[in-house]
Request: fold
Amino acid sequence: MAELFAEAVSGTFAAHDHPLKFSWLDYLPTKPMEHPWKTLCPSIVSSLKNKPTLLSRERKQFRKPGQFRHLPSITLYRDEPILPDLAEEIYLSEEYATRHEACLTSLGVETICWDEIIARLQADLAHIRSRIKTTPVTDPWHEAIADLLLSAFSKDGSTRAQKRIKQLALIPLSKPNQWTGAPGSSPGGSQEVYFAYVGGIPIPGSIPLRLLDRVASTNAKRRAFYEALGVEECQKATVFAKIQWLHQPNLVGPFSVDEDHFLFLFHHNFAVHEIRSWIQVPLDTGGKKLARLGDLYFPSNGEFDMYKLLPTQCSCANYISRSLFDAEPLSIMKNQSWKTWLARVTGARFFPPLTPSLAEVAFGKSSRVLSPALKDVLELNPKKFLGMLRAHWNVYQADADHVKEELRKCEVLCRSGNSFPLHTTYLPTIEIIAKINELGISDTAIPLLDVDDITLDESAYRSWKFLEEFGVSPKPDMNFYVLAIQAIASGSSQPDTSIVAEIYASMARMATVQDHERLR
Reply:
């Protein structure tokens, strides 16, 4: 009787086109029977154990029950096995119902063991289309396999399984397509692997440390698994030392200096004085320069900032890279903004200093001359020179007395298109313009400063009044009338004698003893 039932299952129901190929298990006797049927159930089970009556998951092949394994829920992701099966399939077809689990167990189906899981793990890692290596890093599938493998490291986990898992290249590093096994688990393997963040701040990828992939480092489930493998938290002092090493001026190697170094130092509030002496600053030209050597500027867009005053290709100034300048626009650390901190660490400025920088003075430059950068603006962009002085006068005025004579002698652009020493020029005030019109002379006859307003009203005049400290006059003076006489004398038309008389009268009223010799 038992053999007859077993033959019926294997010879009839176990066929791809039979409607009972999965549900015949519902008819398998499972409860003990009374004599004379007492041995029937065990006999049927014993007979079926040796017959190919169960279907595999992938290729739908009939195989013996003992060749298959139950897959606990932790081995599944969205009702599919987390790891692909091998050629000698052990995954049962998904069409067997949950209610059949006890029957399948009685027929010899066992729960998958760690050796079998690890064999499939190894096969996947070796495959050209490895699911572990090709599944997008943000896919929740990675959480599922992390949960599965982490279970081997539970209190009751298999030491053998743990050791085998650690030897597999399961740790994705931050460098593209680089994987490694657990630290110290195999000869020649990594001795340390670190999580990619310290205190929530990414460790710069360019420094020579083995770092776990950043996505894996921030996912709680995956992080727990990699921690079990021996991935560690990195100390910020370790990162600091590596960054400093990379900034050695003569370092030769594949490592780069980038904004991530600065972001890490900024967010961890390392002392500026510990950084300034060795930090190298990436430039917009692609090179780099030691901060302590000075002469660095921000690539800022203010009308009178250095970046706008001089051509970017000009060798007169070094601009820090735009990506560094814009790296952290909103962050505040220890009551200072990113750009404030960056200015302290790099010494970079928005506009040229009035006098030489401390670095230039240290290299022998006098502190009582105009800075080379200021002279460059005067030479290369004279139209913006005076506007720059006005825009930044609140800063410049502190050192203005040291270079007063230098500023007085600066050849500045006037409305005539020619340049004149600053101390010989005039502001186009209402009084000056009115007197020019009254005398009927051209405004190019007088060295009027080339400023934005045609005529300076009281409000506009106040913003330019500081130039009077350097000899610029806001009203007609003796030299003004001398220039007026010269303009009238060189004119092509007959001069108006009344105007000439008025000029001389004005000169006489303001003449001093010192002017007598000149007037003769």
The mean pLDDT is 87. The radius of gyration is 43 Å. The first strand starts at residue 54 and ends at 55. DSSP finds 25 helices and 18 strands in the chain.
